[in-house]
Structures are given as structure tokens and as C-alpha cells.
């Protein structure tokens, strides 16, 4: 095994030990439906193009459409618990790749 691969696997295993394991999940679908699952009092926030986050949805779990998602922007969705701790995230980057 290469030194790089060995280091990567060690770092990954250590991050798993430091990261609290929860059943929380957040997913942005290609159809622009956002689905989440978290504890009671969960909130889903969205930030477009690194702007301040805003509340998108709330509840223990659900699916909500985001028909306003469009090409040329980057969207960061985060799932937070009732204390504001981030539990999960998903990014939909629809910006055009830069040409060299």
C-alpha cells in the first residue's frame, strides 16, 4: 500500500471516531427535491453562492421541492438540530466549470 493511501485511511478512520454518529441524513435530488431525516426539532437551511444561510424547512423529516434552483449557482443545504449543531449537508454546484 502506498504511503498516501495508508495516510488517507488512517485519517478517515480517525475522523469517524471524532464525528458523532447519528441517523441524520440530507439529500438534494436531481429533481430539486430536498429530503432529510433528523431528530425532533430539526431545521434545514440553504445558502446560495456562499450568502448567509436562510431557513428552508423544519421538521423531524420530510421532502420539500426547491423549484427555484437554477444553473449558474451553488447551493449548500445543511440539516441542524434544535441547538444549531450541523448534522448533515449536501451541495448542489450548478456553476459552469472554468475553462483553462
List the helices and strands and how they pair.
Layout: H1 3-18, E1 25-28, E2 33-37, E3 43-48, E4 54-58, E5 61-65, E6 74-80, E7 86-93
Antiparallel strand pairs: 1-2, 2-5, 3-4, 3-6, 6-7
Describe the protein's architecture and organization.
The protein has one helix at residues 3-18; strands spanning 25-28, 33-37, 43-48, 54-58, 61-65, 74-80, 86-93. It has a single domain, classed as Immunoglobulin-like. Strands 4-3-6-7 form a four-stranded antiparallel sheet, with no helix packed on it. The chain has a three-stranded antiparallel sheet with strand order 1-2-5, with no helix packed on it. The chain is globular. The model is unreliable at 15-19 (pLDDT under 50). The chain is an alpha+beta fold and 100 residues long. A hairpin with a 5-residue loop joins β6 (74-80) and β7 (86-93). The longest helix has 16 residues, at 3-18. The protein is built from one helix and seven strands; from the N terminus they run αβββββββ.
Amino acid at each position: 500500500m502506498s504511503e498516501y493511501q495508508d495516510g488517507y485511511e488512517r485519517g478517515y478512520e480517525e475522523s469517524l471516531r471524532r464525528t458523532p454518529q447519528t441517523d441524520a441524513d440530507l439529500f438534494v435530488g436531481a429533481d430539486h427535491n430536498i429530503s432529510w431525516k433528523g431528530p425532533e426539532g430539526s431545521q434545514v437551511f440553504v445558502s446560495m453562492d456562499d450568502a448567509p444561510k436562510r431557513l428552508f424547512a423544519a421538521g423531524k423529516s420530510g421532502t420539500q421541492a426547491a423549484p427555484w434552483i437554477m444553473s449558474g449557482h451553488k447551493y449548500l443545504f445543511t440539516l441542524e438540530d434544535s441547538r444549531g449543531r450541523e448534522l448533515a449537508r449536501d451541495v448542489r454546484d450548478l456553476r459552469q466549470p472554468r475553462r483553462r
